[in-house]
């Protein structure tokens, strides 16, 4: 009941306000419709099913979550072997907890469809069965930006943990700000105003920070590093009218070249690109 009330009084007003007031958000309208979606059905249904959209525009929610280590997310993966059965139906209880929670939220919001990468993208199943990950991953930026909203399961370290849980209660110390840091803090507080002064410089700075954080992350599959970030890059390239190639934007090429690594480069990518290590 608390969750229903939260959706009614907080989440839907946020979404409607964004739709009516945020012109910049509207500018990110999706250029690509998801190839597949999950029909969550009605509350109480024990099954959901994957559908092929045939490029018809449908209102949907997207899930952003961490797959986690090991085989925890293996039951969620769609492959060429199980895709046909998934078009007929998927037992909810067979899916990881995080995905079950996302289905619950989608139903409570009264939305019929949700996009989840592991299910809606046909995953590779061996070297001779690549699925359609390479094609679909490049469109993920459009899929997320075109969703009604995105559920970010940031509190779950893996797909088996779930995110609908009681809030932890505890005591927290309030730390004073050191006297030598107020200027840095002020810069961070007004950062969004600074960024509006030069969009190209903003893109370069933000991209370099993103690359720094992204390159330190451990992906479920290291081979996905290039294709996984290309969706975001494509979206930014279109938004800022900037050329993107091998992990760098033309407008910030100098900044993107200021790096070094003690590792031997991967010859699959140019040696000047951070993707080569």
What do you see in this structure?
With 277 residues, this protein is an alpha/beta fold. It folds into 2 domains: 2-152, no CATH class; 182-276, no CATH class. The chain is 39% helix and 10% strand. It contains 12 helices and 8 strands. The strands form 2 sheets. The chain has a 6-stranded mixed beta sheet with strand order 4-2-1-5-3-6. Strand 1 (36-39) and strand 2 form a beta hairpin. The longest helix has 20 residues, at 2-21. The termini are far apart. This is Heterokaryon incompatibility domain-containing protein. Pfam families: HET. InterPro entries: HET. Residues 60-184 form the Heterokaryon incompatibility domain.
Mean pLDDT: 81
How many E-type strands? 8
Radius of gyration: 21 Å
Biggest sheet descriptor = 6 strands, mixed
How many distinct helices? 12
Order of strands in the sheet with most strands:
4-2-1-5-3-6
What are its keywords?
six-stranded mixed β-sheet; two-stranded antiparallel sheet; 2 domains; about 280 residues; alpha/beta; 12 helices; single chain
How would you briefly describe this protein structure?
With 277 residues, the protein is α/β, with parallel strands linked by helices. Helix content is 39%, strand content 10%. The protein contains twelve helices and eight strands.
Give the SSE layout.
Blueprint: H1 2-21, H2 23-26, E1 36-39, E2 47-52, E3 60-64, H3 83-88, E4 90-91, H4 97-108, E5 113-115, H5 117-120, H6 133-137, H7 140-145, E6 150-152, H8 182-189, H9 191-195, H10 199-215, H11 225-240, E7 244-245, E8 248-249, H12 253-256
Parallel strand pairs: 3-5, 3-6
Antiparallel strand pairs: 1-2, 1-5, 2-4, 7-8
């Amino acid at each position: 009941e608390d969750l229903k009330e939260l959706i009614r009084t907080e989440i839907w007003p946020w979404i409607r306000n964004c739709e009516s007031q945020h012109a910049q958000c509207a500018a990110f309208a999706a250029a690509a419709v998801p190839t597949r979606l999950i029909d969550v059905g009605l509350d109480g249904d024990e099954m959901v099913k994957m559908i092929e959209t045939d490029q018809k525009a449908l209102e949907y929610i997207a899930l952003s979550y961490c797959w986690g280590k090991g085989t925890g997310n293996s039951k969620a993966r769609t492959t060429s072997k199980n895709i046909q059965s998934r078009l007929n139906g998927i037992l909810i209880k067979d899916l990881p907890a995080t995905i079950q929670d996302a289905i619950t939220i989608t139903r409570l919001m009264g939305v019929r469809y949700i996009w989840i990468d592991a299910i809606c993208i046909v995953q590779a199943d061996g070297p001779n069965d690549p699925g359609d990950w390479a094609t679909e991953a490049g469109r993920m930026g459009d899929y997320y930006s075109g969703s009604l909203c995105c559920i970010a399961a940031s509190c779950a370290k893996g797909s088996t943990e779930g995110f609908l849980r009681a809030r932890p209660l505890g005591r927290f110390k309030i730390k004073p700000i050191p006297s030598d840091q107020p200027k840095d803090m002020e810069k961070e507080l007004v950062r969004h105003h600074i960024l509006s002064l030069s969009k190209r410089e903003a893109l370069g700075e933000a991209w370099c920070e993103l690359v720094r954080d992204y390159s330190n992350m451990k992906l479920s599959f290291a081979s996905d590093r290039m294709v996984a970030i290309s969706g975001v890059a494509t979206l930014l390239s279109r938004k800022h009218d900037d050329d993107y190639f091998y992990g760098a934007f033309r407008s910030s090429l100098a900044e993107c070249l200021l790096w070094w690594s003690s590792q031997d480069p991967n010859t699959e990518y140019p040696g000047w690109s951070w993707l080569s290590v």
